[in-house]
Inverse folding.
């Protein structure tokens, strides 16, 4: 009974901090700018290409680049900006785990809302194209939401590991560069170097080791646009069936959320504020 | 001999290139104010934050009311804190902060006496970003005294406050001490220390150079005020180091 009450109290404390920070973030300028930016791209790509399928392919690239950059850098900077507030809240009877998780949720909820609102409102102007491509739009949203959750968890982890804001930001920026640009290039070089050997399974494993590649491949597997696939998506499609491939990637993306969160909580519990 | 309300045992905190706290052993008692003094970067804030568990020491421990401060949220249930720099979320206001703090302390009702005395209600619904430094400091002070705690840790409590608010805070500190609470404070305003503190701890380069009553310190150096006594103490420390 006492344990149940304690647990209930912990949940309500976490929700109280989350609600407080959400109120703060939904009033923040960045939330509206980011939503509007995604809306503009969602609508603009359709107006330029005139086809919903091509709009999704274009949106995928924007989401992969911009969303991963925003999630990684924003989460790192957000954590550092929140540190004095965290210190203030931690002088109240609440655990560090609760504070960490509520702060994380207070960022990823507005980021996710921006994605859903920006892309969905833009897609509403697609007319018939939206009805035809609805499963693809939903898949794109799913993949970008999972990516947001994972990269924000990684950004929070970086901020928990280092004391200096500039260093944390630099880590986040370099990680973004590595995950979005350098990684695929390295895999391509590896595939060329090991041309004489069966490297499919190796490449497959390497795709899973990068959440950005995972998110990209998740959508590309269904899009069927070979020119956009890149080596990683191509190998994925040739080795695994569509459903099995998607399932594996979704599970791996979930792991990319859970592991950095667990490690981040552990680091935060041992961090000086 | 009274039982200490806080016991600091062999506390060591090292940063990359320096030792912030070098094997600190000290005790704090109920019903008295202890001022922790020292030049900048002497380890004052680190010591206070170690007691609060905001900074985790490399070794040593703190015992609060006979219990180890590792136990869950035990420290936070015993210690209230007023930070040196009031960092409050820009878009929030006193009312939303108050409702958050009440949700975090479901077993206590908020005591708004100090907030009312400081006139916090006048800007209760204004966003923190629009408030002056002094107004923010009033809010942080109100937060520290919002819920009953046996120990109050105040890091430079009167910095940035107008004279009226300073008097109100000092009065509050005295009344809390008179009712048996323990107050730990840091301050660079020595007249304030002279007025409020029963005990002094002087830190230099992470080591305690003096621990005792302010009267003893003045007596030791035959000084009329703490400022002069501390100047003598600092000179003595420098001579020893030299």
């Amino acid at each position: 009974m006492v344990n149940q009450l304690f647990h209930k109290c912990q949940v309500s404390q976490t929700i109280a901090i989350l609600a407080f920070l959400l109120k703060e973030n939904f009033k923040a300028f960045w939330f509206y700018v980011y939503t509007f930016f995604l809306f503009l791209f969602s609508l603009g790509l359709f107006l330029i290409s005139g086809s919903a399928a091509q709009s999704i392919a274009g949106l995928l690239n924007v989401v992969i680049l911009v969303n991963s950059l925003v999630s990684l850098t924003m989460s790192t900077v957000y954590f550092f900006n929140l540190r004095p507030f965290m210190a203030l809240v931690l002088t109240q009877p609440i655990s560090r785990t609760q504070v960490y998780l509520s702060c994380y949720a207070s960022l990823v909820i507005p980021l996710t809302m921006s994605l859903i609102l920006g892309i969905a409102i833009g897609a509403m102007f697609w007319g018939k194209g939206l009805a035809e491509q609805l499963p693809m739009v939903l898949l794109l949203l799913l993949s970008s939401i999972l990516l947001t959750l994972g990269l924000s968890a990684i950004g929070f982890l970086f901020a928990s590991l280092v004391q200096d804001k500039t260093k944390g930001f630099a880590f986040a920026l370099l990680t973004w560069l590595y995950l979005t640009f350098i990684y695929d290039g390295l895999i391509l070089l590896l595939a060329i170097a090991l041309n004489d050997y069966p490297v499919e399974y190796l490449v497959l494993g390497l795709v899973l080791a990068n959440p950005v590649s995972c998110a990209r491949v998740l959508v590309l597997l269904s899009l069927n646009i070979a020119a956009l696939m890149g080596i990683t998506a191509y190998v994925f499609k040739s080795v695994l069936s569509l459903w099995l491939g998607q399932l594996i990637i979704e599970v791996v993306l979930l792991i990319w959320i859970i592991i950095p969160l667990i490690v981040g909580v552990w680091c935060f519990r041992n961090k000086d504020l | 001999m009274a039982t200490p309300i806080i016991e600091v045992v062999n506390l060591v905190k090292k940063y990359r290139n320096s030792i912030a706290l070098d094997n600190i052993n000290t005790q704090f008692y109920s019903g008295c104010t202890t001022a922790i003094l020292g030049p900048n970067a002497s380890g004052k804030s680190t010591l206070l934050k170690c007691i609060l568990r905001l900074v985790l020491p490399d070794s040593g421990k703190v015992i609060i009311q006979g219990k180890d401060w590792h136990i869950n949220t035990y420290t936070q249930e015993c210690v209230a804190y007023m930070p040196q720099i009031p960092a409050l979320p820009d878009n929030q206001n006193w009312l939303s902060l108050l409702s958050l703090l009440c949700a975090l302390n479901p077993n206590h009702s908020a005591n708004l006496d100090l907030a009312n005395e400081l006139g916090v209600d006048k800007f209760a619904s204004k966003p923190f970003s629009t408030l002056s430094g002094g107004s923010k400091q009033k809010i942080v002070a109100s937060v520290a005294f919002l819920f009953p705690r046996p120990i109050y840790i105040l890091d430079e409590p009167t910095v940035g406050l107008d004279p009226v608010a300073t008097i109100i805070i000092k009065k509050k500190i005295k009344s809390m001490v008179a009712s048996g609470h323990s107050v730990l404070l840091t301050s660079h305003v020595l007249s304030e220390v002279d007025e409020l503190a029963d005990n002094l701890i002087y830190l230099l380069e992470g080591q305690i150079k003096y621990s005792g009553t302010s009267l003893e310190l003045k007596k030791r150096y035959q000084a009329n005020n703490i400022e002069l006594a501390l100047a003598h103490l600092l000179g003595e420390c420098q001579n020893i180091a030299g």
